[in-house]
Design a protein that fits this description.
- With about 220 residues, the chain is an alpha/beta fold.
- The protein is about 35% helix and about 30% strand.
- It is built from 7 helices and 10 strands.
- The strands form 2 sheets. The chain has a 6-stranded mixed β-sheet. Strands 2-1-4-5 form a 4-stranded antiparallel β-sheet, with helices on one face.
- The longest helix is centred in the last third of the chain and has 17 residues, at about 175-190.
- The two termini are about 20 Å apart.
């Protein structure tokens, strides 16, 4: 079943007298329960594309249809609900809150949504156990390695049971060993929980791990 349809998506940044076209009439359909990987060089527009789907940036023209709703024309309040209830974000940098423990960081999305605390605590503990960090959940980000912090970010992205995971270079800041570990955990959890994922990366190992692989170059998206 199709849950996302990107139609003739265009993004132009206007800086003074010059226009920079990042995306040119991009089209993409995504079925539920699949993983779509988008590769491309740095600066090719991969992250911009992901942020547009996530409602973190505004489109110049085109549509982003998620479950029959056009995200590209939604109000900011509707976008907030969309991001909180439907999406899980994983970025290249973990963006953990430094004054909160790993457990508290994972718990945060459910706290914001007002989910009953006991239920949220059980899910947070289960997710941290699943990413191999149950013994480290009372540690603060500064006490964790880069790979551990990114595994916390993966658990946090799944906390509110999102429909769609958006992953932007999730292993980009890690060494080879931790990159492989985070990649394996991420794909295992996406499959285990039946999630849909769109992942952007220049890492060829990640590109080959999805159900479909697209390449973005000069603003044009093409299937590999």
């Amino acid at each position: 079943m199709k849950i996302l349809d990107v139609i003739s998506l265009k993004k132009v940044y206007r800086t003074g007298s010059e226009d920079l076209t990042v995306l040119k009439e991009v089209n993409l359909s995504v079925n539920q329960g699949t993983t779509t990987v988008i590769s491309g060089e740095s600066g090719s527009g991969k992250s911009t594309f992901l942020y547009l789907i996530g409602g973190l940036d505004t489109v110049t023209s085109g549509k982003i249809i998620f479950k029959n709703i056009n995200i590209a024309s939604s109000s900011e309040s509707d976008l907030t609900g969309y991001r909180c209830k439907q999406l899980g974000f994983i970025f290249q940098f973990h963006y953990l809150l430094k004054d909160f423990t790993a457990f508290e960081n994972v718990l945060m999305p459910s706290y914001i949504m007002g989910i009953p605390l006991q239920r949220a605590r059980l899910r947070a503990e289960k997710l941290l156990e699943r990413v191999g960090l149950v013994a480290r959940m009372r540690h603060y980000p500064v006490q964790l390695s880069g790979g551990e912090r990114q595994r916390v970010a993966v658990a946090r992205a799944l906390m509110n049971d999102p429909v769609l995971i958006l992953a932007d270079e999730p292993t980009g800041n890690l060494d080879e060993k931790n990159s492989i570990q985070v990649k394996n955990i991420l794909f295992e959890l996406v499959n285990e929980y039946g999630k849909t994922m769109i992942l952007v990366s220049h890492n060829p190992e990640l590109a080959d791990a999805g159900d479909r692989h697209f390449h973005l170059e000069h603003g044009v998206l093409s299937q590999v």
